[in-house]
Every structure is written in C-alpha cells, then in structure tokens.
C-alpha cells in the first residue's frame, strides 16, 4: 500500500520505492513540472525523484522573457535528482543525455535548464 506524507515536500512511498518532490500549492497546476515528473517516473522507474522549480530565480533575465510557452508558464529552470536502476552501467554524460532525451519536447517549448543529479540505488547506499 502507498503512504503519502506532505508539508513542503510531497513524499510517496511504495514499499522500497519512494518519489519525493518539493511542491507548493501552485506546483500542481504547472504543466512543465508535471510533465518532467510523469516522464521520468514512467520511463526510469526511479526509487527516488526530487524536483525543485528554480525558475523564480531566473525570471527577470531577458532571455527567459523571450522563450516559448514554458517560459510563459514561468517554468524554465529545475533541479532534478533521480535515483534509478536505469542508470546502472551508464556514464554521467549518458545518464544526463537519457534524461534530456526524455524531455526534448519540454526544451522545445522553452524549458531552459536542468541541474541534474543522477545516481543508481547502489551509489546512494555507498554515499
């Protein structure tokens, strides 16, 4: 059975798997945030996923105002931490390419930057 806890962090636990995302009341209606979460969750089956929207720190930059619909929604910069068995045997560059590939539509619509941390469950245990 699933357990849900909330506060500024939303945590979903499914036995050994958990998905956490920093949320505010407005995050639930953000299409880019939701899409990032859905695509990574469905494709990589993470044991842990944390997504933090950092767009507010960059909204005043002129290039952000000129971007597409992601920018219009105010969703251009995210910190994403993913722990997944899908990264096993992949270099850091290949892991990042995998995530960027999943989100190519979001980048085409104005997503500007991801700060990625990608690890396997084994790497998390040893750190």
Written description of the protein model:
This protein is an alpha+beta fold and 127 residues long. Helix content is 35%, strand content 28%. It has 6 helices and 6 strands, in the order E-E-E-H-E-H-H-E-H-H-E-H. The strands form 2 sheets. It has a 3-stranded antiparallel β-sheet with strand order 1-2-3, with no helix packed on it. A 3-stranded mixed β-sheet has the order 4-5-6. Strand 2 and strand 3 form a beta hairpin. The chain starts with a strand and ends with a helix. Residues 1-19 and 21-27 have low confidence and may be disordered.
Mean pLDDT across residues: 76
Distance between the termini: 28 Å
Q: Assign the structural class, choosing from mainly alpha, mainly beta, alpha/beta, alpha+beta, or little secondary structure.
A: alpha+beta
Unreliable spans are 1-19, 21-27
Radius of gyration: 15 Å
Run of helices and strands: EEEHEHHEHHEH
Global outline? globular
Level of helix content? Answer: 25-40%
- Give the tally of β-strands: 6
Tell me the fraction of residues in β-strands, as a range.
25-35%
Number of helices: 6
The main sheet comes to:
3 strands, antiparallel
Order of adjacent strands in the largest pleated sheet: 1-2-3
